[in-house]
Amino acid sequence: MTSSLTDTAITDDVLAAAFPEDGSAPDMAVRLRLFRRLHRYYTDYLGAPGDFQRIPRLNTDPEIVRLENAWLRWEDAQVDLTRLPSDAAGFAKWFEELSADHVQPEFCRHLAEDATEAEVALFFLAEELVDSRFDDLVALAQLGSAGTMKLVMAENYWDEMGEGVAERMHTVLFEHSARHMRAVLAARGFDVGDLICAEIYENACLTLMYGVHRELTPRSLGALGLMEHSAPPRFTAMVAGCTRLGVPEDVIEYQRIHIHVDENHGAEWLEQVLTPLAERSPELLREIALGILTRERVANAYYRRVRRQMTALR
């Protein structure tokens, strides 16, 4: 099989290797190639107006459709259906307990107390595939919503926009920090491209797939809600670790502002977006919960792998 992203045909054998239905371990090298191709497709689809000639039409590439369908089937098969909330009345408590278990305490402790500057830099850049597009994900999530629900998401988006100040936009702050982190790794002879793995791309592609496909909006809302609700401890740990290591304050600003911003957004997202939707129908409750549980599984695998990548830098 060629390693070219554009020449690799998405055959039944390739999909079976990446998403085996017999319970065997996936081929992570194949998954990396597939998720890199899928990530490029999504980022092209969300391209800027000036790149209109490169923007693909949605659902017209049969190989991408086959890849997405195989991946969705595989992810759904990983969900322990006994973990789904039994009814909407218990949804908020179920979500809060799951989110509390999802904060990665050992990972956070390592960031805050033990990680080297190179390890912190690697983690920051691993987050780039998601954080650099988070404003687009929030924008997509708002489509079709109304009332208080839309206002909550719009407030979240306004924060992402730096409350109207261009240099305070979160993507701008993130890129400023990313330049510093790339320099840290480069000075130590590390190529970021060599450290990227399938789990990092899968983590990014999941939220992009949920955001791009309108029929997956309930899953997107659930996944984004879990991200917002469980993120503050990791941002707190990053600030502590960066401060310990003497990282410049302007580089830490992106992480620092998200500690309290995401605490507010997480609570509002649960109370004003997820819970009201979960109360509308059992089918909607199920879709939201599937998005949450799938995001949990994918993110847990991502944090485990990134921790190994970080340790390898020592």
From TrEMBL:
Organism: Actinoplanes subglobosus
Alphabetical UniProt keywords: Oxidoreductase
Keyword Nuclease on entry: no
Keyword Acetylation: no
Protein name according to UniProt: Iron-containing redox enzyme family protein
GO MF entries: oxidoreductase activity
Organism domain of life: Bacteria
Enzyme Commission designation: 1.-.-.-
